[in-house]
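Technical note accompanying the year-one report. For the benefit of new consortium partners, we illustrate the data format agreed upon in the data management plan: each record pairs a sequence with a structure-token string. No post-processing was applied to the example shown here.
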Amino acid sequence: MGKPKQNLVFNGQTLLQRAIEAALSSVCRPVIVVLGSNVESIRPSIESYPIQIVYNPDWNAGMASSIRAGLMRFQEVQPAADSVILMLCDQPFVDAALLAQLVQSKSKNGIAACAYSDTIGPPVLFDKYYFNELLSLKGQEGAKKLLMKYSNAVTSVPFLLGYIDIDTVDDFEKLL
């Protein structure tokens, strides 16, 4: 993209600020933000929020390292938590209502994922039963690996705008 997508501005806020505000408007606590590349240019726009910022020095090792960094901090500050929601900043239409649906939809099997464009994906709620497997992900592996492995345990929550995912300049221009 040529610049950090976290800092792209949509409707008066950066993508990361939108994601943080969605989380803070929900029942989810604590809100932990994992930063890696470009931390110096991203951090100033979010420091005033009541969140915990975790720097992932291994960000270039892949997505799994960010999941580990965030989940490890989550377990430190919320050791009795029975579930966690993993979300990204590049889905600009995630809101508190969607996160509440994930919490309400947690099945007895413990995974609730968003359904869009004939797939399931983030944001995703995982029961603590899956924490060790999330922590053991490697490289570019994301939580999608667990969604596929435990597909029978997943409750899906419709997220019609979930397919809007900002990965390229063209994606962002279409959003605008």
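Partners are asked to follow this layout when depositing records. The beta strands are 9-10, 13-14, 32-35, 52-55, 83-86, 111-116, 119-127, 154-158.
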